[in-house]
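Training component of the fellowship. As part of building independent skills, the fellow (R.M.) carried out the full modelling exercise for a liganded target. The chosen ligand was adenosine-5'-tetraphosphate. The inputs are recorded below so that the supervisory panel can assess the work.
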Amino acid sequence: MGECAAARENVNPILPTGVREIIFPGALHQPIEDIMAEFQKLVFSGVQPTGNLHLGNYLGAIRKFVALQKDNDCIYCVVDEHALTAQLVHEDLRGQTRAIAAAYIASGIDPKKHIVFNQSAVAGHAELAWIFNCVARIGWMERMTQFKDKAGGKNAEQVSLGLLAYPSLMAADILLYRATHVPVGDDQKQHLELTRDIAQKFNIDFSANIRKEGYGIDIKVGDEPVHAYFPMVEPLIDGPAPRVMSLRDGTKKMSKSDPSDLSRINLMDDAETISKKIRKAKTDPDGLPSEPEGLKGRPEADNLGGIYAAVPDKTQPDWLGELGGAQFSVFKPALIELAVSVLAPITEEMRRLPGDTSHIDAILRDGGERANARAEKTMKEVRDIIGFLR
Ligand code: AQP
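Fellow's submitted model of the complex:
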């Protein structure tokens, strides 16, 4: 099936004008809420085992994972295949994978009620990613900010094809379970938009086959009826800390792979280390302002204040009202106390987890089996839709 009329006219897709860059020019005229109501609500997210989990991962993602499990069916993955995209050889990939799974559990994720597993245990991720590599267009991938940042001017001989195709594997991670909601930090927003583009193009291109095989639901894209198999995922980005910045440079995201350990607060840092890192955190000579305008051009002050507010879930006006006028010499000890109070229970819980690897391995194995059963159902249907001979 060819592209719909709206696509040929190059009109915008999924979200209202101005909200996002136009990547795939389809026109979804039916409200997303109506479409999504047809799909069973399922939360999916993942973390790469590329280093120590930090406060940004916790506030931007894991804390949301924990909150969402109360009222939702959730699948939380350690995305070990993604770890190969920027760096192929890892000293201890198994150990890092177990460490992320342990951090999930210590943060409060319930692996019995929900699913916790590692991506490479379920072959469907790689299989669906290949199909999505053929659905997505190279230009969509080349436009991804994270690719441009990580490729960082290196020539094509120096970055892997996997780094370019990363968002296609991420789309497969989510859509393999036909997940509807994805809690992530702000840095993943563009990848989730691409996930929608891939889902929409698959739905349009295979609409006739989806109907013929008896799967999916009817929606309208422009004036054309489309039989949709994949949902348009909803990113869950909002929250007080969607993007925590580096302690050494307020214009750079706090990141596991930053070579400077002083740039981040790790989930496993003890009180003394947290204190040292916050005391050394870059600031400027002025104190904290009372009004948002006073933060302009002061990314470090904005970031530290934002972290202080995020822990108890305060808004910017709230924390500015509370801290306005404080010098960093007064503010930093308060921030240290707060950061230690959030991380100490997680660190303590990590220490309480059995030291041998069999406990975490058993959780991941059980999660992998349950994830695989769901993934296989999707893959069987996708193979039918595409026309692969069984
Ligand atoms: N600084 C951040 N602030 C808020 N949220 C963040 N996340 C990452 N950094 C921040 C969110 O954490 C989840 C897991 O991220 P990931 O490990 O899959 O990959 P990433 O986004 O690339 O995180 P890092 O720490 O920067 O890892 P490396 O250095 O390996 O690339 C995601 O939901 C992410 O949004």
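The panel noted the following from the submitted structure. Residues 5-237+355-386 form a domain with the Rossmann fold fold (CATH 3.40.50.620). The pocket of adenosine-5'-tetraphosphate is lined by residues 47-48, 50, 56-57, 60-61, 184-185, 187-188, 241-244, 253-257 (CB under 6 Å).
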